[in-house]
Design goal:
The chain has 14 helices and eleven strands. It is α+β, with helices and mostly antiparallel strands and 437 residues long. Helix 4 crosses helix 8, helix 5 crosses helix 6 and helix 12 crosses helix 13. InterPro entries: Beta-lactam/transpept-like, Peptidase_S11, Peptidase_S11_N.
Length: 437
């Protein structure tokens, strides 16, 4: 019989193996099953009746959630998504989701995805409408205002029924003063509301803004409305490539035809950062009861252009534009860090369907051969997916346990040699012990 002293090292090794197995499998389980995010599929519940569907009608199905975050794996995380060794964030950021990105490289520098991203846009969706307008309508094209335009729930610029406006004038009024009457008039000019909404959503899809669904041209709440901080950054970045939009969004004041038909009235940009933040390039704010306060804006400093998005924020204790300014300062102060994600340059191409072939004893299907090529963790992940880590851990533990058994056998043989006087009995005992071990 082995003494307690001889069993102690073995027990310690086995205990260590147990702890390692617990740690490895626990970590693997944590990676394989991340904590679920709120509002992954749809924005938070509405607080009023604006998203109620008519009796007998079905609400729109939520947008499909991509299997992999389009901007990178880290943008699928919940909570703060920061680069390594990031400095302390500004205080008093009330937005439930925000994002800072480099407009030129597309690098996402930091983000907060507390509610998994999907929120309501409110009037920042007008950036998407403005981009469709800039793409399709000439600045000198005209639009005649109608009673339906004037009947929109305001904020309104004050169009006059029967008055004629240029697209340039309406685009300025749309992004500078957030006119819902203007949004309705431009949507009509794009072929009517259903046509305009289709064009907006088609453009969002083309850009890779897969969380975004416009339901109204103005951003007023309606069933199925959805976006994300990532999408708003994508949309604003793309819109700034259109000179008509970039010019309008940075303009601080223009003269606009008066609603009474006599003369003009000053139209002042409602984006405070234009006058308070050095290097501001323009932006767009919004508010509805369901969306709360939203904001997107951009600024330039030392040759860098950053875009910042805040969704579902509050004006207290700090104004949304001041929160945006603080996040812009934070982004400009970041050193050359590894991005936490990237603004894509377009939606990913749909995967081509492959024809499945039955494997033979001497060959595998083409798809299996292609996916099996790889080394290290990549090959293991391709072969086993989320269970690759645990399988690798089992293999490692097997090696450790084999070494423990080897040590035990060596001790048994040493004990048999010491009992040479009992050769026959020791040999029989050794044989039995070896078979047992």
């Amino acid at each position: 019989m082995r003494s307690p002293a001889s069993r102690r090292p073995v027990a310690l090794v086995l205990a260590a193996c147990t702890l390692m197995a617990t740690a490895v499998f626990g970590a693997s389980a944590a990676r394989a099953q991340p904590a679920p995010c709120d509002n992954r599929v749809s924005p938070p519940p509405a607080v009023d009746t604006s998203e109620e569907v008519p009796p007998g009608a079905k609400p729109p199905s939520p947008l499909e959630v991509p299997e992999n975050p389009i901007g990178g794996d880290r943008l699928g995380e919940c909570g703060l998504v920061l680069p390594a060794n990031a400095r302390k964030l500004p205080d008093d950021i009330s937005a439930r989701s925000w994002l800072i990105a480099d407009m030129d490289s597309g690098a996402v520098l930091a983000a907060l995805i507390t509610d998994a991203g999907r929120q309501r846009p409110a009037s920042v969706i007008k950036v998407l409408l403005a981009m469709v307008v800039a793409k399709e309508l000439a600045p000198d094209a005209t639009v005649t205002a109608t009673a339906d335009d004037l009947a929109q729930e305001c904020t309104c610029v004050g169009l006059r029924e029967g008055a004629e406006y240029t697209v340039e004038q309406l685009l300025q009024a749309l992004v500078m003063a957030s006119g819902n009457d203007v949004a309705h008039a431009l949507a009509r000019r794009l072929g009517g509301l259903p046509s305009a909404i289709r064009k907006m959503n088609a453009l969002a899809m083309e850009l890779g803004a897969l969380d975004t669904r416009a339901v109204t041209p103005s951003g007023l709440d309606a069933p199925g409305t959805s976006t994300s901080a990532y999408d708003v950054a994508l949309i604003f970045r793309a819109a700034m490539k259109y000179p008509d939009f970039a010019k309008a969004v940075v303009t601080q004041r223009v003269d606009f035809p008066a609603a009474n038909g006599v003369g003009t009235v000053p139209l002042v940009n409602d984006n405070r950062l234009l006058s308070t933040y050095d290097g501001a390039l323009g932006g767009k704010s919004g508010f509805t009861d369901d969306a709360q306060h939203t904001y997107v804006g951009a600024a330039q400093r030392n040759g860098r252009r950053l875009v910042v998005v805040l969704l579902r924020g509050q004006q207290q204790p700090v104004r949304m534009t001041d929160q945006a300014a603080n996040l812009l300062d934070y982004g400009f102060a970041l050193p050359d860090v590894e991005p936490v994600g990237r603004l894509v340059d377009g939606a990913p191409q749909a995967k081509k369907k492959t024809v499945e072939t039955k494997p033979t004893p001497t060959s595998a299907a083409v798809g299996e051969v292609a996916e099996s090529r790889g080394t290290g963790d990549t090959a293991m992940s391709a072969a086993f997916g989320n269970v690759g880590g645990p399988i690798t851990a089992v293999a490692g533990l097997g090696r450790v346990l084999a070494f423990v058994m080897y040590l035990r056998n060596r001790r048994a043989k040493a004990a048999r040699a010491a009992r040479a006087a009992q050769a026959v009995q020791a040999a029989q005992a050794a044989k039995a012990a070896q078979q047992t071990d």
